[in-house]
Design brief:
Structural class: alpha/beta
Keywords: Allosteric enzyme, ATP-binding, Cytoplasm, Glycolysis, Kinase, Magnesium, Metal-binding, Nucleotide-binding, Transferase
CATH class of the largest domain: Alpha Beta
Number of helices: 10
Protein name: ATP-dependent 6-phosphofructokinase
Number of strands: 13
EC number: 2.7.1.11
GO molecular function, one term: 6-phosphofructokinase activity
Strand content: 15-25%
Shape: elongated
InterPro entries: ATP_PFK, ATP_PFK_prok-type, PFKA_ATP_prok, Phosphofructokinase_CS, Phosphofructokinase_dom, PKF_sf
Radius of gyration: 22 Å
Helix content: 25-40%
Oligomer: single chain
Number of domains: 2
Bound molecules: adenosine-5'-diphosphate, 6-O-phosphono-beta-D-fructofuranose
Length: about 325
């Protein structure tokens, strides 16, 4: 391939800029031309497509957000939108596209693949809920941000002998809660992948204070319920502690990416370009056991493909992401006093 494009889509994630930089600079060093598609799939369909050079991506490696901007554009779930997008790419002479985004963005990449247009998916989301990779770009930064926030809450929590319910993002995945909970020494981690009994949580809070704990930090994944709802459930179940709830919100999506996210983004971005250069599209890149890997985006579960299509054309996720429940078990051992 001689001319490729790159876009960011869905929720932004720290490290997306480092990935864009890697795609652009690697493409140029491979002798290819590279275009930026602004505002995700919306920009693809609208033709918001502009050539980038090495200096277009200078000074962005340290910045959160995405210089190409992002969009939520449900129209791309329709065939008409997808074909219009491909028409725009072809009009610009673009032969392959790197899609940096989360779960929804990958569905878009799958539709491009289905229509025969070469796309490479690159996992960019704080949620870490993408199949085919151990880690996503932005996850490490989000976990670090949450850990810093919990460290601060712990200070005030201890001073006042308070219980805190801290709601963290992750959509339906508990990864951010598990990693930030372990890293900040949480007393409880509540995630959607595991059931919990509210009476047990009430009991553990009570026992904790009796045994001399000065605080109770409960990290709650948003996929379970909101912090406000969880706090109310605790009170309804008899909790008598001095309770506060905090929703960390979009602070988790911003900020300068950690070294780990920058390096991951750089490796994935360069790998995606090498694949397109070799004429390989229709794959999602990822990191497995510290090595770059790629899986077909569309195909059978046996082939290791991320998605299959049902007879009526609906998307089926072959091997849905699973949070590492060993971490939940680890936290139970480490938080017991
Ligand atoms: P994320 O990529 O972070 O999961 P979204 O779920 O909002 O974020 O998806 C981002 C974009 O991907 C959507 O706004 C839409 O343009 C595209 N998209 C989502 N689902 C589909 C789908 N089923 N088919 C085609 N495109 C999709
Ligand atoms: O997918 C990333 C994410 O930040 C989720 O963790 C969260 O549920 C969602 O996006 C928030 O979306 P929005 O930015 O549309 O509020």
């Amino acid at each position: 391939m001689k001319r490729i494009a790159v876009l960011t889509s869905g929720g932004d994630a720290p490290g997306m800029n480092a990935a864009i930089r890697a795609v652009v600079r690697q493409a140029i060093s491979e002798g290819m031309e590279v275009f930026g598609i602004y505002n995700g799939y919306a920009g693809m369909v609208a033709g918001d497509i502009h050539q980038l050079d090495a200096s277009s991506v200078g000074d962005i490696i340290s910045r959160g957000g995405t210089m190409l901007h992002s969009a939520r554009y449900p129209e791309f779930a329709e065939r008409e939108g997808q074909l219009k997008g491909i028409e725009q790419l072809k009009k610009h002479g673009i032969e392959g596209v790197v899609v940096i985004g989360g779960d929804g963005s990958y569905h878009g990449a799958m539709r491009l693949t289905e229509h025969g247009f070469p796309a490479v998916g690159l996992p960019g989301t704080i949620d870490n809920d993408i199949v085919g990779t151990d880690f996503t770009i932005g996850f490490d930064t989000a976990v670090t941000t949450v850990m810093d926030a919990i460290d601060k809450i712990r200070d005030t929590s201890s001073s006042h002998h308070r219980t805190f319910v801290i709601e963290v993002m992750g959509r339906n995945a508990g990864d951010i809660a598990l990693w930030s909970g372990i890293a900040s020494g949480a007393d409880e981690i509540i995630i959607p992948e595991e059931g919990f009994a509210i009476e047990d949580v009430v009991e553990s809070i009570k026992k904790g204070y009796e045994k001399g704990r000065t605080h109770n930090i409960i990290v709650l994944a948003e996929g379970v319920m909101s912090a406000a709802e969880f706090g109310k459930a605790l009170k309804d179940a008899g909790d008598t502690s001095d309770l506060r709830v905090t929703e960390l919100g979009h602070i988790q999506r911003g900020g300068s990416p950690t070294a780990r996210d920058r390096v991951l983004a750089s490796r994935l971005g360069a790998h995606a370009v090498k694949l397109l250069k070799a004429g390989i599209g229709g794959v999602a890149v990822g990191i497995r056991n510290e090595q770059m890997v790629e899986n077909p985006i569309l195909g059978s579960a046996e082939e290791g493909a991320l998605f299959s299509l049902t007879e009526d054309g609906k998307i089926k996720v072959n091997n849905p992401h699973k949070a590492d429940l060993n971490l939940a078990e680890l936290n139970r051992s480490l938080s017991s006093i």
